[in-house]
Amino acid sequence: MPEVEIPIEKWSGKVKEVKIGGGGRKEVVVGGQTTLPFLKYEGSIPNPPKVAIEVRDIEPAFPSPLASAWGDALKDPGAWAKKAAEFGADLICVRLISAHPENANTGAAEAKTTIDKVLSAVDLPLIIVGPGVAEKDNQVLAAASEVAKGQRVVLGNCEEKNFRQIGAVCISDGHVAIAKTPLDINLCKQLNIMLSDLGVPADSILMDPDTGALGYGIEYGYSINERLRLAALGGDAMTSFPIINQVGSEVWRQKEARAAEGVPTEWGDPEERGIVWETVTATAVINAGCDIVVMSHPRAVERVKSTISKLMGQ
Q: What is the CATH number of the domain that holds 26?
């Protein structure tokens, strides 16, 4: 039989490269692709997807399988970050949830203390995410930016309601902004345009188009990642930024990952179920175009990093 020739798609666009870290800290580069995920025969994939591990600034009420994996490290963000580095994190994602008005309503001083502690504990590049309330995000992210000046961290979330404030901080201190939008490619593109018009450099923007856990909107998350990547490779400059997805926090708040009692036996081992849920969700989004996946459970991290390595042929 004659050989079947594999059709090669030729793309005109390219995903922008974004460097995170530096200033004595390890560097991570994401983006730069000229083809769809893992199709190396069609183009260049200089930087495979990276895995960040989430660290919180106060001890969380994690379900047993997740809490037992981290133990006493959950009590201290510095110790947690150290353990995350041991578990193979490429980046550390610090979530300043204590600043939320419904939590401890902490402010700039506490944010500075937390970020300084994590910066001192590990030499990995940082992603710093606020509590999700615009006024508090502006306050604590500005403080975190000041502490991490010169070390090129990622700050988020930068949304329509506060993009000017967070964008200005990223410009002045040389950091990277997370452009966060709710599962809509047009809103995503619009925010990227506004950040660019504000003066945030093209190599200092990551897109978080949002995602859902397996069974809770993963199809929407997959679709938006894929559509953004197709648009970027088609030559649309305002969709050509690398993508970050917050998978771990989405998965572990769902009942399938948390529930140990009162559920069908068909759901399987509660110690393994959440890990599988997170692994499958993360694997889906990296196959759709995600460049940084933020995860929670060390065993899920191990499986996803192994999958990335195999898909890259390493």
A: 3.20.20.20
